[in-house]
Amino acid sequence: MTSVRAEVLIIGAGVAGLTTGALLAEAGMDVRIRTAAPALESTSYAAGAIWDPLYASHERIRPWTDVTYRTLTSLARNAPDAGVHVLDGMEATRVPATPPTHVTTLPGFRRCDPDDLPPGFVTGWRYHAPVVDMPVYLEYLQHRLKAAGGTISIGHAPSLAAVAGEAPIVINCTGPGAAEFVPDSRVTPIRGQLVIVENPGIEEFFAEHLGGPPGMTHDDAPREMTYLLPQGPLLVLGGSAEIGRADVDEDARIAAGIIARCARIDPRIAELPVLGHRIGIRPVRDPVRVEHELVGGHHVVHNYGHGGAGVSLSWGCAADVRDLVLGL
């Protein structure tokens, strides 16, 4: 068993790295995070983000998302500085479909009457789900990590082999960077783009349901989707899923398509000035990798490959990593 002030080095300061670091520091470990760029420049910063277990594959998807749902709803009640809000909202489909099992058990679940659906949608349902303001949330996670004694430094980690052994335990939370850092050829980048506008008074989320159960892959999903996520004075509009594309340059064509689709849900959106764009890379791997291995005789624990469900899996995966580390 690992001793109570065991030193842990985490590579990566996205939502996986910060959540894992906070849990380990709060468990009494000496946690250092090294990251190539600040958290607010990570791919996690660009996430929407709404709790949704789709688009990640692993046998533990359900327990991971259950833990995360409970944690996020608790933060919404008890941590006003976390940027988490539980909202009522609608998920709807363009073809007839039944609600996935994971939403039928959520608070507030009910089926929509056809007259309640936006144009172009034929079935839908409502429920309560956590919606996360990622810039605020990442700041919260950093404060929580530091309050427990953890530290964050900016620095380059060239490869897993190069950093294994720098601490008794190294945790790999490199997200899309794992493709080269590990290296892991099973990691596929999927680019996503969001548009930020002023919120005209929308208080409920809307998300297009793209079909399939938790664990479906991005290969099964459309490249375009429609969602509106209210975050206080701002409204986040989405989205896109471009397999194999890893640049973070603004794409005006994609942005225009997002605005047009969202304006069909609420016509006010068509007239709103664009305040900004967020572009991130989803690190897709089948399955998500949360496991221990020895690299050159040194302890390494992996936590990456969450695809578009990084926030939705974050607390469950971090808890499993904590348990792995405590068992070493």
UniProtKB/TrEMBL annotation:
Obligatory cofactor(s): FAD
Gene3D superfamilies named among the record's database cross-references: D-Amino Acid Oxidase, subunit A, domain 2 (3.30.9.10), NAD(P)-binding Rossmann-like Domain (3.40.50.720)
Protein name: D-amino-acid oxidase
GO cellular-component term (any): cytoplasm
Record-linked SUPFAM superfamilies: FAD-linked reductases, C-terminal domain, Nucleotide-binding domain
Binding-site positions, D-dopa: 209, 227, 282, 308
Enzyme class, first EC level, given as a word: oxidoreductase
Taxonomic lineage from the root: Bacteria, Bacillati, Actinomycetota, Actinomycetes, Micromonosporales
